[in-house]
Amino acid sequence: MRERRRATSWVAVVAAVPLLAIAACTSSQDKKDAAPPPPPPQLAISPAADAKNLPISTEVGLTVTGGKVSEVKLTDDKGGQVTGALRPDGSSWMPDKALKNKQRYTAQVTATNDAGKSVTQTTSFTTMDKPAKEVFSTLYLQDKRTYGVAMPVTVDFDPGVPKERRADVQRRLIVNTNPPQRGAWHWTEDGQQVFYRAPDFWKPGTTISVRAALAGVPMGKEGFGDEDRTATAKIGNKVSLDIDNGTKQMSVFKDDKLVRKIPVSLGKPSTPTSSGKMVIMEKHEQTVFDTTGSADPYVVTVQDAQRLTWGGEFIHSAPWSEGDQGSTNVSHGCTNVSAADAAFLMRTTQVGDLVTVRGTEVQLEDGNGWTAWNMGWDEYVKGSALPVPQDLKPSPAPPAAAGAPVPAAPPASNPAPAPTNPGG
C-alpha cells in the first residue's frame, strides 16, 4: 500500500510538469503576437478658448482623428444645457435654436474610439451684443399648409445676400423630406431669393420640414440674419396649368389628366405676359390692382386672383374681357379668364402648382417670382453657393466624335425684362 501511494504521487508530479511548460509557452507567444492597443482619438474643437463677440449662430466645430464624437455638452453661464445635434458630415455640432446675445457658453466634447478609449476637450466663448443692423428674411413655407408638387422652398432676403456670404448662409438652410427626395439650392443673381427643389417634382403626400436658422448669421455690411424660422408642410395632388398664346387657351391638368380647357386673354403688345415656368404664389378671393404713378394708371378690384410673378402677373376673373378671351390679348400682362372659370381654378389649384406660359413676346426674368423651374437641372445647380453632391450633379456631355464639326456658338441675346405692372 505504501509503494502504491508513492508511485501515484510520482506520476502526478511528472504529469504536472509538461502542463506548466505548455501554459508558459502559450502565454509567451500570445504576448509576442498581440497588437499594441490603439491610442486615444485626437480631437480639436472650436471656437478658440475665451473667444469673444461671436455671432449667435456659432456652432461647435469638430475635427476628430481615430475615433468619433460621442458626446457634446453646451451650457450657458448659469449651467443651463443647450440642445443640438451633429451635422451629418460631422464637421460641427449645431444648436437647435439660436444662442442668446451677450452670453458666455462652455462646450465640452468627448470623442471615443472602438477600443473604448476617449478624450475630452473644453472651450468657452462669449456671444456678441444684439447687432444694430439686421437683414430681414422670409420663409415662404407655412406650417401645416398643403402645397402643389412644384412648390420650391423659398427664402427671401431684404437686402440681398452678397456672393461671398452665400455659402455660410446656405449651410444654415436645412430641408428634410419624407419620403426622401434630395435637392439643391439655387440663388438668384441679386441674392434676394434662394430656392430649394429636387430634380423632379415632389411626390404627392410628401412631408417637407424646413429650418432657416438665420438668426445672427453674418451677411456682410448689411448686418446679420434676423431670426430662425421653421415650418413643416405637406404636398397635395398634382395640378398644372398650360397656357398657349397661339391658341389663347389654358389646359388644366389634374394628376396628369386634362380636366378642362379655358379661353384666355393675355397681355396686349404694350404690356405682354411673360413666357416661362412659374409657380402660383398667392391666392386672393378679392384684391385691388393699383398702378397709380405708372404710364398706364388704373385702379381696379378683381375677384379670384392668383399671383404668378412679383411684377404683378396674375390669373384672375375678368368679366369685362370675356368677349376677347380665346381670341385677342387685351390685358396689362395678366391672364384674364371668365368669372366661372376663375372660380373653378380657385377651387382646383394650390399655391405651389406649376403654370407654364408659351409663345408670348417676352421671357420670364430669373427671380421675378418663384422661378426655380424656369431652367433645366444642369443650369439650376450652377446657382448653388456650395458644392452639389456627386449624385445630383448634371451628367457630363458625351465627348464629340473624332473629326466631328464643332457647332458655331449661337448669337448673344438679351431677353426683354418681365413687366412690372401689379396686375391687369
Automatic annotation (TrEMBL):
GO molecular function, one term: peptidoglycan L,D-transpeptidase activity
Pathway: Cell wall biogenesis; peptidoglycan biosynthesis
Keyword vocabulary terms for this entry: Acyltransferase, Cell shape, Cell wall biogenesis/degradation, Peptidoglycan synthesis, Signal, Transferase
Pfam families with a match to the protein in the record: Big_10 (PF17964), YkuD (PF03734)
GO biological process, one term: cell wall organization
Start-end of Pro residues biased regions: 407-424
Signal peptide: 1-23
Organism superkingdom: Bacteria
Chain residue ranges for the region called Disordered: 76-95, 386-424
Annotated L,D-TPase catalytic domain residues: 239-358
GO CC annotations on file: extracellular region
Active site: 316 (proton donor/acceptor), 334 (nucleophile)
UniProt cross-references to PANTHER family, sorted A to Z: L,D-TRANSPEPTIDASE (PTHR30582), L,D-TRANSPEPTIDASE YCIB-RELATED (PTHR30582:SF2)
Protein name from the UniProt record: L,D-transpeptidase-like protein
Provenance organism: Micromonospora pisi
